[in-house]
Automatic annotation (TrEMBL):
This is Uncharacterized protein. It holds the Pfam family Ilm1. The lineage of its organism: Eukaryota, Fungi, Dikarya, Ascomycota, Pezizomycotina. It comes from the Eukaryota. It comes from Orbilia oligospora.
Length: 110
């Protein structure tokens, strides 16, 4: 038996999506200054001049924030279902979520 149930894991991921959505919409500069983002940007050779908070990129970050917010809300609503419909819904979603997680869990870089 696992330490954390599947519904708890889904709720945690939904909360993470909602937090990312909030920061992409209201405080994109905060994400731009994170160490991991700077490190990945330097590894890919992206200039530091480009930022999420510039006027040209603002609509893109807002759209991504809305997308993350929609995904977080829909998963949170679906995770609140009890009983058999929960397993029917997430059983059907597994084939869409699994291909996204295989490269990360097996160490394959795309």
């Amino acid at each position: 038996m696992g330490l954390v149930s599947a519904s708890t894991q889904i709720r945690i991921i939904s909360a993470l999506h909602l937090a990312i959505a909030y920061h992409l919409i209201f405080q994109p500069k905060l994400l731009d200054q994170q160490g991991v983002v700077v490190l990945l940007g330097q590894a890919m050779g992206i200039d530091e001049v480009v930022s999420f908070s510039s006027a040209a990129v603002r609509p893109v970050s807002s759209f991504l924030g809305l997308l993350f917010g929609f995904i977080g809300c829909s998963d949170l609503i679906a995770a609140s279902i009890d009983g058999i419909p929960f397993y029917i819904h997430w059983g059907g979603q597994g084939m869409f979520y699994l291909p996204k997680s295989i490269p990360y869990s097996s160490g394959i870089t795309l």
